[in-house]
Amino acid sequence: NYMLGVGRADCTGPVAEIPLMGYASPDQVGGGLLMRLYSRAFIVADLDDSRRVVFVSADIGMVSQRLRLEVLKKLKDKYGELYRQDNVILSGTHTHSGPGGYFQYTLFWITSKGLIRPSLNALVNGIVKSIDIAHQNMKRGRLFINRGTVENSQINRSPFSYLKNPESERSRYSSNTDKEMVMLKMVDENGQELGFISWFAVHPVSMNNTNRLVNSDNMGYASYLFEQEKNKGMLPGEGSFVAAFASSNLGDVSPNTKGPFCINTGESCNNPQSTCPVGGATMCMAMGPGNDMFDSTRIIGQNIYVKAKELYEKASQEVTGPLSSAHQWVNMSDVSVELNATHTVKTCKPALGYSFAAGTIDGVGAFNFTQGSVDGDPFWDGIRDQLLGEPSNETKACHEPKPILFSTGEMTRPHPWHPDIVDVQIAAIGSLAIVAVPGEFTTMSGRRLREAVKKEFDSHGTPRMDVVIAGLCNVYTHYITTYEEYQAQRYEAASTIYGPHTLSAYIQLYRGLARAIATNTVQDLARGPEPPLFNISNLTLVPGIAVDRVTKNKTFGDVLQEVKQQYREREVVEVTFVGANPRSSAENATEHNFLTVERYASTSDSWHVVQNDASWDTRFYWTKGLFGQSSATIEWHIPPGTEPGLYRIRYFGHYKTKLSNNRAISVPFEGTSSAFEITTL
């Protein structure tokens, strides 16, 4: 028995004009909303409340160091020593369709246009709020664990790198991806369902880099389906049941199951360089199972949801035992790793290789670098040397055979470009050990890490531990490949920033944490060097919010393009309004809702909200015009089974205007479509 609490809070942030975080494509800028982003928090405490563990899964690309440090400071101000570095795990689902700009290291400023305070604040506040809700709703309850295989939802996107791993190791596994989902189910002592956390390794990149609508991708859609089912009669984002689909060792795992094809010729480009005969690597893109990216997101999300539902319903193995957590800060650019009694190797100062700029088959790079590049290109070398300085001989040698594109560990202006100080952390809930990793471990790296941690527990008297990897936690350090995969220098290897022995260093560090937990000596672990918090308030290339304007004879919320009078299910209702910058709304209200779909009830002569902007079936597009003018288009994709009747769509916004004293204020407004009828076939 434990005390359990769950909570969910909106962390969407600005849905327009902010670069989306994930594909590193500067022109992929937000232009509306498909689904809201949420932070989902789970607290487990001993009955005597001597120990607590907090796990948060947020619908964001990754947790940045800046985000973690600010969240922990807020928690400390609020709760004292209750929630700390060691017992709070913050994990990102790794959606590539959330707003960026919440990083303090310079490299991440390039594609997300700096540090964007409104974006960071939305995440900090949403995560803290979800923890507050969980904290306020603690009750006695029980935990159950289950695991099972998810089929038809992943492929390995760097199979040629995977094949570099020893045959003796590969032969122990039936697949080149981890298909297992682990599920931790929570119920209170009366049997009332509270929620669950599941972990599964797949990139949430069913939505590709042409997408402009903020959303939580396939994993978020799985959460949406589960929560909609359990919170009956509630709108999306409402209700007490919380379903988290958290990331794991997804480094080389894609949901685009049809595999890589040349978008210009249609032939396969499943080759070691992921390159096409015409157009090179930029033409090589992986395709999902659906007929477009929305459909693929739905199919993969549905697969994951269906498996989770089965595991949830059948979960019977109870989790019992003590709680503990261990955390250290480590200077990852300077770890000595003892490979064996005679052989010691070292990690390197951070650096990115050429294939980093090539991107992957899920999202190609901005320049046409090919993956698997093992010799530099003199033109780019020249640009890099002028811009960024030549890497030192020491760094070059340390990273061999990686050709270095950005020697980020040697770049310090205006602030360091990459972290040196990294979090390693494990939380144990009875027989479940959650290994919180600061990045994207590949399939085989994750297997080696889990095995090493399990072995460590075994040899110190704690056998039969379930070890699960939680991905993208606490600070972002790109990828972690095996030493063998590193030799191939595809994207994941080029992005293994601390060099060829990165994985070995992490294995050594996490074994140390596991040993401390197993032998009850966590208090003797060195805290390690504290990470820096750079003094940056807001440093961004994103333009300020201009004053919103309308054309003559029009006002905010007026309908520009009206709905049709009649629709059937599966058709799309579309209406366009005179709009205003959605960023004004985000800054005015954390819980702002841009739209509702309402159904008329003749019995009460009133309109009832049936969908909101968090619904999968609604899409909100914002289009910026000239001179401060803009429009908002709302689509409702009428789902099968929609009740016939009279409906309308409403739009809610804020426009920014200047008062006579030149102070800018935001004024709320709304618009309403004409009523339309949904008829049966």
UniProtKB/TrEMBL annotation:
Keywords: Hydrolase, Lipid metabolism, Metal-binding, Sphingolipid metabolism, Zinc. It catalyses: an N-acylsphing-4-enine + H2O = sphing-4-enine + a fatty acid. Coiled coil: none annotated. One of its GO terms (biological process) is sphingosine biosynthetic process. Residues 511-678 form the Neutral/alkaline non-lysosomal ceramidase C-terminal domain. Transmembrane segments: none annotated. Zn(2+) binds at H94, H203, E440, Y479. The keyword S-adenosyl-L-methionine does not apply. The keyword Lipid metabolism applies. GO terms for molecular function: metal ion binding; N-acylsphingosine amidohydrolase activity. Binds 1 zinc ion per subunit. The active site is at S254 (nucleophile). Residues 2-508 form the Neutral/alkaline non-lysosomal ceramidase N-terminal domain. Belongs to the neutral ceramidase family. This is Neutral ceramidase.
